[in-house]
Every structure is written in C-alpha cells, then in structure tokens.
Amino acid sequence: MPTKRLALIIRGAVSLGSYEGGVLYELLRALDHHNSSLPTGSDRRVCIDVLAGASAGSMTAAITMQVLLGGRAKLAGARDNPFYQAWVVDVNLAELLRYRNGEYEEGSLLSGDFIAELAQKHLGSAPTGAPHPAKPDSGHLRFAFALSNLRGLDYDTTPDLDFPCTRFQDEWCDEIDLANPAAADWAQIRLAAITSGAFPAAFPVRFLTRARTSYNTNYLSPADWPATEPTRDLPYVDGGVFNNEPLGLAKGLVDLNDQHLDNDNRFYLYVSPSPKLSDRNKDFDSRNVTLLDMGSHLVNAVLGQAQYQDLSALRKTNQKVAAFDATAQTLSAVIASNAGQIASFRATTTLLAGAAFANLPAGAETLAQAVARLGAAYATQPWFPSDPEQRQAWAEMLAAFERTATLQEKDTMTLLTICAEKAELLGDALSAFGGFTAQAVRHYDYEVGRNKTQQWLANPAKNKLGLDLTGYVFEPTNLAGDRAAAVAALLAVAEESGDQLGSRVAFQSKNIMKHFGIGWPIKNMLASGINGFTSAYVTKALDDEAAT
Predict the structure, then answer these.
(1) What CA–CA distance (Å, rounded) separates 412 from 328?
(2) In 10 A of CB 371, how many CB atoms?
(3) DSSP string, 297-334
(4) Least packed by Cβ within 10 Å: which of 98, 274, 412, 482?
C-alpha cells in the first residue's frame, strides 16, 4: 500500500474550471516527478484513488481519471494538455450560444449539445496510453459526481408511520476495476459528468438511467419506486445546487478503499477557485425589508444551508475521533499499570464487548473483526500493548466503546486545500460565466491555478505529502503580463457579450411569455426591455470585473 493516498475533491466552478485545470496539471506533473524518482516497490509513492466532483469539477475529475489510467503522455506542456485544451481553448461564448441542428432551443439559454461535443472530444473513449505514476497499482479507482434530482425520491424515515422524506440531492458513484480498466463505461461516465455540470437555465435538464439498487433500498419508499421497477430515468441539473463541495462523497468512497485502516496516510485535497468563506448575511439588519431583499437573502440562506453539512460534519467527526484516540492511549496505560489484574480485566471486557455487539443486523462488523481492525489501526503507536493478554483486553474494551459511540466507521480527515482569492481571478463575473467571454481570461485563470499549486508544492507545511521535488523545474508563469492581456480582452468584449447575452435572454423570455398566452405587442415590448437591461447588466459586470 502506498505511503500516501490522495482523494481529490473538486468544487463546482463554471468557467473557473480553467483555474482547477491549472491546479490539476501542476499537481499531476509534480506527482509524476516524485513517483518516477523512487525505486521500484517504494512505499513512498503517492497515488490518487478517489475523486469527487461537483458541476465543472466533475468534468475536471473525469479528465483526471483519463490521465491517470492512460494519459500520462498527454501532459506534454502547460499549454499542451487536456485540461488546458478543454477549459481554455475549446470552450467559448460563441459556441455556447450556437444551438446545434435539432437541439431543443427552449430548454436552455446555452447549447447543451456543445457541452456534449466537448465531452466527446476529451472523454470519448477509454485511454490506451501509458498510465500516470500516480495511478494505484491495484484495487479500484472510485469516483462520484454530485447531482440535483428535480423529481426527488421518497424515503420512509419510520417504517410504522407514513411520513416520507423526499431527497433531491443525489450523486453518481462508480468505480473502475484497475485489474480491467478497459471495461469502464466511458459513455456513461461522460454523460454523468456533464449532467453534474448542467447549470440550471444555462444548460438543459439531463436524464440518467438509474438502478434502484444504487440507492439505499432499506429506506427507499416502495410506494414511490417499487422493487418491480429495476431502473428509472431521472431528471437532473447541476449537482452544485445542493452539494458544491462533495467532501462527504469522497469520504464514503475512501471508506470503501481503506476499510478504516492506515488513516495516517490518507489525505483529502480540496481544489477550489475560492476559499471556503462564511455565507452569513451579516449586513442584513434593516427593519424595512423589501421583497427583493428578502428573496435574495432567502436564496442565499437555502443554498448555504444545503451545502453546510459536509464541512460541519468534518469538524465534529475529527473532534470525536481525536477524543477516541486519546481514550485508546489512556486505556492502554491503565491496563499496563494494572497488569496483575489482567484476568479480571479480560472477564469484564468480554462481558461488555459481548453486550455491545449483541443483536446486530446481518452483515454488521463482528467483535472479532473490530478487534482485528483496531489492532491494525493502532499497531504502530508507541503505547500499543505488547502483551497479548493486555492487547486483547484493550481491544475488546475499545471496540465496546467504539460501538456504543457509533464511531466504528469514522476516521480523522486530513484536509489540504489549493484555493485562490476572489480578487486574484478574472472569470468570476456573472456567477463565474464571465470567463467564457474571452480566452485570455480563461488562460489567466488557468495560470493562477498553476501558480497557486507551484507555491503549495514548494511549501511542505501546506502539502504534507512528503514529495521529493529535487531537480524538479516548475514551468514559469507570467501572471502580470497575462492579467494585463486578460483585462484588455475583457474590456474589448464586454459590450459585444452584453448584446449577445441580452438577445438570448430576450429570445427565451418570448418563449416563456408565449406559454402564458401573452400577445405579440406586449411580448415584444417586454422582451425589448429585458434585452436592454440584460445587455447593460452584463456589460457593466464585465467592465467592473476588469476594473478590479
């Protein structure tokens, strides 16, 4: 097992996927150098075995998987790699605005078929080249893409009471068997990745065929989804609506790979174009609240609460596990200092542990399995009991504590981050769609991602992966020059982009008014006003972004 195992969490970012692409390029390049410099069989290797993405992060995660499995040679240079091509060169506003032949134009502001074309280009087939040295040698490469299910699924929270809970947050979780990576279904992976990035209104709703068994069938309501229906097509939009920071998804996949063992060598890397900041409405204290103020703050509150759980749970779990680790050490010391009473200890621990593990459901971890797992987890600690009798008493008592505290499937999570500050990027305007207006902007944001990662790699206090970068040469960046070029490009396209987006929003507003039976004189007048407002708003937003 490699010394370090890395789970990647890639946040939703819209056009700032260019930043995340820069991060992934530099990270994979450095891991290649580190792992390639080690002797065969070295336990100092660092591998990436889990990826979790939301929205644009899912596309970046899928590209990363291709590189790991057989795309090492594709990382030929800072501007010659699939991250740069997909996020900087290939995507642009003109293509996004051009509906393809036969595309349903009333379903979205932008072309979903164009996104499908991009995915086909970069994820169209299984990789066949040499694998990247950060690919695990065996086991499974596991991945998850966050989704938002517009239909929702009912779960029976209490078996004896008709009180269903409808869940709209969803995910696509899958794995690639590294013994047979060619068997991976890249058509399905590709579709799931772009579905995760189907930003509401901007892109069309997408459907995925889901198996009933991919959900928790113990609680899934049979009235909503009967067992006689094995699959169902479900409608989805951007997973970032409910889960833009899919840390919990990554943790669930890590548990499948690690089985709660060797946790000291497990790391989570969170990649985001912005740091995790407070969402609180600290200035919302006026007594005269308009409907617009209430609506905007309510949306912020709902979305903020929907994305609160994972990072909050991380802190609480780490605190609980730290306390449990301290208990394990104290218990070892107590047993060692009372070695003469080991027979009494054994009788007590056997009784308590037996009670704690009695009447468990089928398939639950047994006492013997828990004892073996705890022994393996703490075996390298200097205070680990050396006497077999003491060790058995310690492990049984600890297993009983763990089971009653429901900590048996919880581990401390070491979270690393590579994030930028908002002021450092230029594609953040228009809810991060601004970068699509100019390639120079996407190039600059990509270079910021590279620069941030170079700084992170050069600072062992931050990356904590123990990478040996001796002789490694970072490809230089020119942020000052690139920023100046990006600002000039943004100013040059601001008015034209405003006109283009204003026209598109007006077109879709006519379609909406048509469904309400609004006649053409009023419809045209309203659409004209919407066009002018949107055009002015977009132009100002891009000008303001360039000015800052």
Answers:
(1) 14
(2) 18
(3) HHHHHHHHHHT-HHHHHHHHHHHHHHHHHHHHHHHHHH
(4) 98
Nearest-angstrom CA–CA distance, 465 and 44? 9
* Rounded-to-integer distance, Cα 236 and Cα 244, Å: 15
Q: If we measure between CA atoms, which residue out of 7, 41, 13, 11 comes closest to residue 27?
A: 7
Instruction: Please state whether the predicted TM-score (pTM) of the whole model is above 0.70.
Output: yes
Residue with tokens 């003109």: 94
Supply 112's token pair. 């979903």
Residues 509, 514, 518, 519, CA torsion sign: positive
In this structure, the number of other CB atoms found within 10 A of the CB of residue 340 comes to: 7
Residue range 294-303: mean pLDDT, rounded: 72
Among 78, 79, 107, 111, which residue's Cα sits nearest to residue 92?
111
Residue 48 corresponds to which amino acid? I
Three-state DSSP state, 71 = coil
Q: Which amino acid is at 339?
A: A
Contact indicator for 491, 543 with CB cutoff of 8 Å = yes
- How far is the C-alpha of 30 from the C-alpha of 6, rounded, in Å? 14
Give the position of tokens 């045209």: 524
With beta carbons less than 8 A apart as the criterion, state whether 312 and 413 touch: no
> How many alpha carbons fall within 13 Å on the CB side of residue 334?
11
Q: At 491, which amino acid appears?
A: L
Mean pLDDT (the chain, rounded): 89
Q: Closest Cα to residue 308, out of 280, 283, 284?
A: 280
In the DSSP assignment, the letter for residue 173 is E
Q: Torsions phi, psi of 228, nearest 5?
A: -75, -5
Three-state SS sequence of 418-470:
EECCHHHCCCCHHHHCHHHHCHHHHHHHHHHHHHHHHHHHCCHHHHCCCCCCC
Q: Is residue 324 within 8 Å of 260, Cβ to Cβ?
A: no
Distance CA 206, CA 191 (A): 9
- Tell me: the pLDDT tens digits for 438-484? 999 999 999 999 999 999 999 988 888 999 999 999 999 999 999 99
Cα 220 to chain centroid distance, Å, stands at: 25
Model confidence pLDDT, tens digit, residues 324-357: 788 888 889 988 888 888 888 788 888 888 888 8
The predicted-structure confidence for 252-283, as pLDDT tens digits, reads as follows 899 899 877 777 889 999 999 987 666 676 66
Which residue, 416, 381, 397, 407, is CA-closest to 322? Answer: 407
Q: What is the sign of the dihedral through the CA atoms of 538, 544, 547 and 548?
A: negative
* HSE-up of residue 365 (Cα within 13 Å, Cβ side): 20
- Cα–Cα distance, 110 to 100 (Å, whole number): 10
Q: What is residue 414's three-state secondary structure? A: strand
